Amino acid sequence: MKKFKYLFLELGWFLPVIIGQWIFAPHILRSKWKVIPLAALPVAVYLSVKDRVALDEGTWSISDENSTGLKIGGVPIEEIIFFIITSWVSAQGIILLTDERSPAEILKLKTQLLSRCRSNHSRQ
Q: Is 44 part of a structural domain of the chain?
């Protein structure tokens, strides 16, 4: 189980962000679904290549004890997944920040949160 520590930590860090983005405005992300991999994957490839250089030069290392040992092109799979997820979340975030429908979504979310707060406050 310790071999999957890095992978499990990554998923624990990123899943809440990804889920939050999809809860916030799924229709926006669905409408731009083709753009997300086009933006995210080249960045992930670039970062993976640079990571390989850093690993080869001893800039940093990945603990064999806490990773699966699976590698692609000499880069641990956990690192590649990290770069893919980071780039993916960033691409989705940029889409959500720049889409013309986002201000309305933010207002809707604010209204829902205020309504819940008022409802909880009145019960006390």
A: yes
- Looking at the structure of the chain, the number of domains it has is 1
Inside any domain, residue 6: yes
pTM of this prediction exceeds 0.85: no
Q: What is the tens place of the pLDDT at every residue in 88-102?
A: 999 999 999 999 999
Look up residue 41 and give its amino acid. Answer: L
The structure tokens listed for 70 are 């699976």
Is residue 124, in this structure, part of any structural domain at all? no
Q: Tell me the residue type at 21.
A: Q
CB 95 within 8 A of CB 32: yes
What's the pLDDT tens digit per position in 21-54? 999 899 999 999 999 999 999 999 999 999 999 9
Q: Which residue segment(s) compose the domain that 27 sits in? A: 2-119
CB 80 within 8 A of CB 45: no
HEC secondary structure over 1-62: CHHHHHHHHHHHHHHHHHHHHHHHCHHHHHHCCCHHHHHHHHHHHHHHHHHHHHHHCCCCCC
User: What number of other Cβ atoms are within 10 A of residue 52's Cβ?
Assistant: 18
